[in-house]
Amino acid sequence: MGSSRPIGTIGVLILGKKNRKIAEVKPLLDTLLDNGFYLSQRLYREALSLAEETP
Fold first, then answer.
1. Long-range Cβ contact pairs of 40-45 (< 8 A, separation 24 or more)
2. CB proximity list for 32: less than 8 A, separation 6 or greater
3. Which Pfam families match (predicted)?
4. What is the residue extent of each domain of the chain?
């Protein structure tokens, strides 16, 4: 299957930000959380850090 590996929902959002396909990750993470998506506070902060955003 080549060198592809799964990156998950959060990884897709971060990749989208880095590739300038989306402007901000935080509002999308907040929408996911508001709709029942489980995300630990640690992973939330780490995702924002990787996306170069502040909590």
1. 43/10
2. 9, 39
3. DUF3368
4. 8-50
